[in-house]
Amino acid sequence: MSTLDEEDRREYYRIEDMIALEISPLSAHDAASKEVLQDASPLFNLLSELHLSEFESQHLLRQVSERDRTLASYLKVMNKRIDLLGQVVAQTVLGKFGEPQRVKLSEGGIEFEHNLAYPAGSHLALKLLLMPQALGLLLRAKVTHCEPRSFGNFEIGTEFESLTDAQRQLLARYILQKQAQERRLAREQSDPTPD
Length: 195
Prior knowledge:
Helices cover 47% and strands 27% of the residues. By secondary structure, it is an alpha+beta fold.
């Protein structure tokens, strides 16, 4: 017999991934607020804004592409250059995070191991750096479960709260890209290559 909470979490496709993750408990005031969280690091905020603005301008690029293919091609090249600069910023930010860790990620939440226990119902600020897209997200999450694991670590499951539409769609796009990459790799490994 499954609970409603389990059914809600099954709505989203999950991937296993290696990401940089920073966890901070939220105060009661910050947990109740619906405002987008801001990080103390200007570089991380810049990285987040870079992807949000790129997401928000995609429909404009499609409109330009319908009218002027040459201009659209040029803008795509410029966008690629900006993405490369974003990856440079991400490498700088990554040095402040520490080593990437294995997580289970979906549009609805994230599950990870941590050396501190956070009881179910507590609220966290989760700073995610998703590579290689250099996508930086600072999200609110509520702990759904916290179970002891080996070596004094805890498995912590969370569900995201108060995501903006742009944050949710960026996360969904990242997950779909990872899923497509996994399928491609599986096909390549199963298809014998001719000699």
